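Collaborator request, handled under Task 6.
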Amino acid sequence: MTSAGAFPYIARSSRIPSSKKANSVMSRRCELTGVGPMTGHRVSHSNIKSKRRFLPALSPASLHSDGLGQTFRLRISNAALRTLDFRGGLDPFLLKAHDEDLSPRAQKIKRQLKAKAAAV
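Structure tokens returned to the collaborator:
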């Protein structure tokens, strides 16, 4: 009585490869400053407003930690990269940053820096 045509939603769920499901969600948030997408209006010539998203300018960066002697690959905004240069590198930036702004990976690096400084 039940055939494949009777329940088409069962057959469709297996068509999506598992690799596509895992890679479909990607964070658009800076790992150091916590800057994420903002909303605003797209304004036409006739002043009609429709919703739009302003995405942060994120770029992958290899950042070297002098205290740990390691290089970390983080996805940060271009503004955060300029702030890193201004503050003197990754270590001073992380030690001064608030924990709620940092990603879990950046929080782990900050904990390692504090543990290394306490041991010395």
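The cover message to the collaborator said: "The longest strand covers residues 58-65. Strands lie at 38-43, 49-54, 58-65, 70-77. Please let us know whether this matches your experimental observations."
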